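Tip: read the tokens left to right.
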């Protein structure tokens, strides 16, 4: 009989320890089973509401009241676009949740890729009073246009220095630095163009193809342009751009020197790229 009693004691002790391990919320003294049930339901409801809050709405939602902008942020004019005299409009689409916060900002139409990221960055900082249905807030998709015009933006420096014909080449410089899709810009490079990456002398086409590797241009998605200086020769046949780029998260920076040449037909193309490390 002794072994059986010992076994029962061991099993009871193990069960008690397991029960204690399972206890995660202690009800207050004197609470009823109904109180405990209500507590569980409340926690479940909060979790469900949070999940619903992060769920994108349908493409079309019929509402009684439209969302109202409480905080509007003007985009920062990209310095390289300003220097090239580039203007245009960018349409961005995002959805506004029931607390007026912005989610999933995407460009749906742009006149120039060089302007797109500035519009995205501005849209992410917007705040709204949410749309409503029968007085209750609902999530809804919103489209916002951003207009980039040089009026009152110029400082009399780089904007006047760069010929308008450089726009195509400058847009491609930005694509090579910051964009994922760069196939459309291959034509903006001269056949004999080259890059200097560290101590390596590389055909520019190869350096672009190997972007993000030791033998290619840096992959600067997640970076931003923080400075641009331009130099044009007297005959307006050669343009040199000194660019400083900065990593948004840490502030780390690097410099690039890009030389563009103008052909006899007046078309500007990239001839040389000295990439910072």
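Filled-in amino acids:
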């Amino acid at each position: 009989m002794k072994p059986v009693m010992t076994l029962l004691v061991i099993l009871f002790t193990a069960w008690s320890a397991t029960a204690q391990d399972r206890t995660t919320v202690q009800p207050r003294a004197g609470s009823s089973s109904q109180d405990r049930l209500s507590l569980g339901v409340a926690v479940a409801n909060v979790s469900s509401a949070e999940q619903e809050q992060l769920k994108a709405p349908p493409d079309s939602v019929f509402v009684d009241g439209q969302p109202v902008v409480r905080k509007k942020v003007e985009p920062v004019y990209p310095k390289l676009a300003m220097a090239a005299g580039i203007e245009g409009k960018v349409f961005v689409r995002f959805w506004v949740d029931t607390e007026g916060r912005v989610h999933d900002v995407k460009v749906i139409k742009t006149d120039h890729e060089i302007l797109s990221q500035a519009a995205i960055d501005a849209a992410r900082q917007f705040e709204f009073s949410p749309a409503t249905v029968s007085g209750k807030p609902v999530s809804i998709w919103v489209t916002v246009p951003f207009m980039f015009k040089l009026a009152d933006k110029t400082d009399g420096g780089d904007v006047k220095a760069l010929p308008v014909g450089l726009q195509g080449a400058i847009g491609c410089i930005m694509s090579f630095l910051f964009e994922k899709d760069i196939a459309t810009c291959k034509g903006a490079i001269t056949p004999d163009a080259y890059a200097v990456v560290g101590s390596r002398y590389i055909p520019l086409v190869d350096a672009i193809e190997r972007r993000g590797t030791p033998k290619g241009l840096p992959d600067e998605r997640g970076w931003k342009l923080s400075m641009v200086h331009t130099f044009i020769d007297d005959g307006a046949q050669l343009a040199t751009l000194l660019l400083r780029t900065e990593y948004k998260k840490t502030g780390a920076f690097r410099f690039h020197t890009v030389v563009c040449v103008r052909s006899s037909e007046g078309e500007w193309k990239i001839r040389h790229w000295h990439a910072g490390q």
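Helices lie at 2-22, 33-53, 79-84, 116-123, 158-161, 167-178, 204-209. The longest strand covers residues 223-232.
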